[in-house]
Request: fold
Amino acid sequence: MFLGRYHFILNLFETNLIKIIFYRNLFHNVIGFGTKDFIPHTSWSLLSKLLFKHFINRLPLKDALRILLNEESNLGTHTDIFVYYARSGANAWSLVRYTWAQSFSRPFTIHKPLQCPGCGRMPGSITYNCKKSPDQSSVVVHFKCGAKTCDWQQQKFASKAIIDMKDHRSIMDKVGKAWAANNGQWCFEEMKPVTSF
Reply:
């Protein structure tokens, strides 16, 4: 019982600490990684180079991150990167999600299952096709198991707000074209930040 109360008090303290950090503007950038099964050692290379470029070379974090992401395709295959950027004015924070697209493993930034959830077959059995949604608001990625005995299929949606970092165009423009086929491509999406707890 005591441990439960202590944990509750600690959570209140952590929540208040986070509020103080946000409202007093103590940090100007906050980086997070978004995946269920995050592997921390994959982020070390990016974070060490990023700190060097930002603090030693004096590059703004946003510029340094966009330069370094091209070297970090391994990290992109495992996780998305979320960055809160501090701004002055009415919108104090902005949130940008950096995500990886690769035709085999992450078509249009959507994770392709490693094996079929229906029959358990290994990679290569899952095929997909992409099209624009009828209202032109997203890319529809339709996954389907290629085994004749399995009828598993799934649709996932990628927002049209996702932008290719190379040419700064929406991924909607890439539907029906060979895109991110060989080495993959980093993309970004500006999102609405959460600033209240």
Remarks:
- The chain has one domain: 2-191.
